[in-house]
Amino acid sequence: MTAIITDKIKRLFLTQLYDEAEGIKKGDSDNYYYIGIGRSQLWSPQNSTDNPPTPTHSERNERVFRYNAQSIKAIEAFSFVVPIRNWTQNTQYSQYNDNITGQPATSYYMKTEDNNVYVCIRNGKNALGAVQVSTIKPNHTDTTLPIETDGYVWKFLYTISVTDNNNFLTSNYMPVKFVDSALPTDPDAPQYAVQNAAIPGQIIGYRVVNGGSGYDSASTTISIEGDGSGATAYPVISAGAITAVEVGESAGTLDLLNFFGSGYNQAVVNVASSTGVNASVLPVFAHWNGLGADAREDLRSTSMMFHIKPEGSVNDDWITGGQDYRQIALWKNPYDSAGGNKFTATSGRLMKKMTVTERFISGTDFSDNVLITGISIGDSNAQAWVDYVEDSTIWYHQDEYTGFTPFQQGATIQYGNDEEDTKVISELVAPDVDRFSGDIYFINNNAEAQPRTIGSTDDIKLVVQL
């Protein structure tokens, strides 16, 4: 017995995340999504190595992340995304095909340097029906389907806006969305026009399963039989075999829009010939609501990107000046550490904090994953990793390596291995957020530590791919 999970249910799951994060709540109360960072120390401090483990689907993996969590910041922007495919001259592209899942090796869509996104309705072919490379970059941004001089036909879907470009465009992904509404002067107006012009039940191409033999151009005709109307196609024949079937009445067809037909849910392609035999051709349907009705469907998006951009020091939550992190997570509905209420602030600290009598001599150097150690009676077993030091304030966390013995106010601690560098704890401050609350939906382990400085602006883009 075999089974599949369709792209539609993947988009359904991601849409629920999207709706909850945007404020269209699914439950009885609001949901709050954050990106969290953590892990300032090496991956293997006992061996002085820094090779990240592969995250596993286990409760322990999630718990270990919580031990090392430093800060969270509310999601600022989010979008469906797809693998980026840049148009490149002299590259072969595939036609849109409803017989594939996911993203084929030869892309059927692309983005131009103008940030316009197109889907290939027809690739260029020579007289023998062999696919050619694309040499002409399309530039139309309307609902027309011009046939380029290289034979390619590209359907415009949308233009990536400046805002979406800054938030979601990376070397690996590009944004894709559905536009609910747009004024004529809005940047999304061209996409909105394409969505509204989409026609349900169109047959936008044909797939030759078997080219057969003995066919000739004079006597071979193609007809479409189904529950819609208007679909028209013609064959391309080479050496007696049908090598391609194209939309239109003949090779001279200029306006494909008139020959896709409409209203088809089912159809068969009939090949009639007085000489040829054994050809088999299948129709290629656009998405149910029409190509362009929803670019997320057309480009088969099953990934969502969440974005935050903390700048400098966000209060004392996203600290600077030598602090770094190795893990990133998507966090839903954490609680505060004081009253047990849902945490709703823009950012929050998960590190504990202590104030000592005066600044440590080595208080700005954390390159060696410095430990602080309790050396007085009452907390002699207490150890912690230092995340950051500013003047006489220390931000810190504990994990299985350090143990979880709490520090005591008034106790003496030692910084690193310097037995002469000791101070007395004058105050202990609880974190903003209860690190053991809320749901962790995603964890990413970085191969390299991500540093932060006073002048740094982090650009964190987290992609959830189903």
List the total number of helices.
5
**Cα distance, first to last residue?**
22 Å
Order the strands across the largest sheet as they lie in space. Answer: 20-23-22-21-24-25
Strand fraction band? 25-35%
- What is the CA-based Rg, rounded? 30 Å
In percent, how helical is the residue content?
under 10%
In round numbers, the mean pLDDT is 88
Gist?
The protein has 466 residues and is mainly beta.
Would you give an account of this structure?
This protein has helices at residues 7-22, 59-68, 162-168, 189-197, 295-298, and strands spanning 33-38, 69-74, 77-83, 109-111, 116-122, 153-159, 173-176, 203-210, 221-226, 229-231, 233-238, 241-247, 260-262, 267-272, 280-285, 303-308, 324-332, 335-336, 347-349, 352-356, 371-374, 383-390, 393-397, 412-415, 422-429, 433-434, 439-451, 460-465. The chain is mainly beta and 466 residues long. The protein has a six-stranded antiparallel barrel with strand order 20-23-22-21-24-25. A five-stranded antiparallel sheet has the order 19-2-1-17-27. A hairpin with a 6-residue loop joins strand 24 (412-415) and strand 25 (422-429).
